[in-house]
Input
Amino acid sequence: MTAAADRVAVTGVGLVGAGGIGTEANWAAVCAGVGLAERAPELAGGPVELVCRAVGFDGDALIGRRSARQMDRAAQMGVVAAREATAASGLAPGEVPADRLGVVMGTGGSGVTGVVDVHERLRTGRAATISPLTVPRSLPGACAAEIALDHGASGPNFATSAGCASGLVSIGVAVQMLRAGIVDVMLAGGADCLLHPVPLAAFAQMGVVSRRVDRPTAAVRPFDVERDGFVAAEGAGVLVLERAGHARARGARVLAWVAGYGAASDAHHFAAVHPEGRGGEQAARAALADAGWDAGDVDHVNAHGSATRAGDLAEARWLARVLPHRPSVTATKAVLGYAGAASGATEAALTVLSVARRRVPPTANHERPEPGLDLDVVTGDPRAGRTARALCVSTAPGGQNSVLAVADV
Output
């Protein structure tokens, strides 16, 4: 059980995603409950035609052309989200000693696209045009490093890579570091950009992306009988996390508390989820134990909800076993798409907002629940009500499972 002195405060959030640039834009988008997938003209005729873009994102304009040229697109988004989160937290530059401020960012592999582009330059005889920054820009820790540079943070600075669960894993790792007293403040989250023909083609071969090109906004259908997969996306989510005593000492506005965290592996298959959701259940029970909650204490779940056939079924099964009282469930990938490591961090931020604002965004396109999936999925309009204690769930290929417990103030 987490002692009061070990509580971790969330004092700021920052988002970039299909809803736009900024937390309020993405919150408004998920509350509107309309999918943001669109057909990409440059992908016409290919195995994947639908994407969820971060509309209006221009790294040159937001962080300066010179700085932006040193980063890949995912890192640019991470820096923008981190700046928003820090500003929202009220932290002034230099307020936290540099060695007491750390950064951990999840990545699912955005750097791969840069390597593919370099290969294309080599293949076409353009080796002289390859950037000398290719290697550092493509490293998994590039986004975390850029955020640390931008904030003058000399505390721990690294990446987590647990597939699409990486963003939520990074938050869990940051919580553990804060509890251990290693730092006072952590910037934690995830950033990814999956809108490249190579990962898109690979997703298509896996059979996990929606082919509903005739109705893009209705393509992603979590927990619906007609679901046929996700739509790949891009984005970033960053949380400012602080030790409780540090937040109190500076008079910070606490949005919510991180009460617990759990992680587990399915140990089942490299790419397929365990059909009964064994790892998800184990991670959720660990998060509940860490928070000192009974299962019945949970009011709300921000589900992984990838809208894949097997994934949603496994998740629904373990949610029903762990939480038989049927708390409200939302799955925001139906609106924002599946942005790899950014999704877990974005969903953690949205869970914080649901707890703080006592409002649950609806699950877009959930029209016909599949028989046997006994969940209270919120649909239509946002649902007002009790959201004092919530869980946020992320899973990934390889059996990665991560669950965060969030409580109101």
Q: What stands out?
A: Residues 261-407 form a domain with the Peroxisomal Thiolase; Chain A, domain 1 fold (CATH 3.40.47.10). The longest strand covers residues 8-17. The chain has a mean pLDDT of 94.
